[in-house]
Model the fold of this input.
Amino acid sequence: MPKNHTSLIAKSLSSLAVAAGLVATAADAQEKVVLRVADSFPVSGHWMVDNATRYWMDAVTKATGGQVTFEYYPSEQLGKAKDMLALTQSGVTDIAYVAPSFIADNKMPLSAVAELPGTFSGSCQGTLPYFRLSRTGILADKDFAPNGVRLLWSAVMPPYQVITSKKKFESLKDLEGMKLRTAGGALDLTARKLKAVPVRLATPEIFEALSRGTIDGMIYPFSSIIPYKLDSLVRYATADESLGAIAANYVISEQRFRKLPANVQKAMLDIGEEATRRVCAALDRDLQKDIEKLRQQGLSIVQFSAADKKALQAVLLAVQTEWAEGLDQRGKPGSEVLKAYRAAVAAPQ
Done:
């Protein structure tokens, strides 16, 4: 065979190989992806669903040109809130809402740092530092990675308040002995320090418990009262205290994330940060509106005396210290995480 003919065949084969590679690359880039998203929130009318969850799903689908679509399972359709981490790890769902204090077996104890009382005064002030520490900081290394999950977006709610139904209160003394619903973790500590009785209930169970008098009230956020139809039951509340909060995280298993095309990974992370900023801004913006709506429906706002406020600050600081030292004793860097979170909150946002 002539030498030039052999060279021509070789070049042709090489061109075909390159073309095949380009086709394969294009096919990979356009790989269709369907992801399951699960949470415990109502189908509509909830601040997280309206401001972040649906926004994130729609924005990722748009950013990927329809390459990624989602199947959404709200209202605990795939499982209870306490099991969402396990459901994500096992692949029952790809993405799920995980709140550290709700998780069975307390598998993300350090991430509850954002749930401590007295650490911040608004949602974005609490959310953005927490998000950074959970994406690339100490919480990412010590809590998320060991559980095999990666944070997509997050929201730390505005500081919780004491809210009661039939029992009027005007002072810290009045709270003693009250049965107050908590979400566990640091909120339990706060209730006990106030000499109240913490009652751990899932959010969908609160309405019946208040109606029946099983609980007197709760340590709870204004932003969740109307979505869960509790507005007809609440009568007394503080409005400017900082009694803790809940960190609402949406996570994906690291194993599932690594299998996604690079362009999809980038879109999910970038839009996750946008959703985080969007939802905390909405929570801060709507807080006073929510309070005013409830006042119009008969809610009375309680203002503690200066002496009670001073005493309360001592209580909240004691909760922070006890939380951190308890983790230290278990071999977890509780004090280190608390110090990192305080510094992050104090830094410019």
The domain at 161-245+289-346 is CATH 3.40.190.170 (D-Maltodextrin-Binding Protein; domain 2). Confidence is low (pLDDT under 50) at residues 1-28. Residues 14 and 20 are 10 Å apart (CA to CA). The chain is about 50% helix and 15% strand.
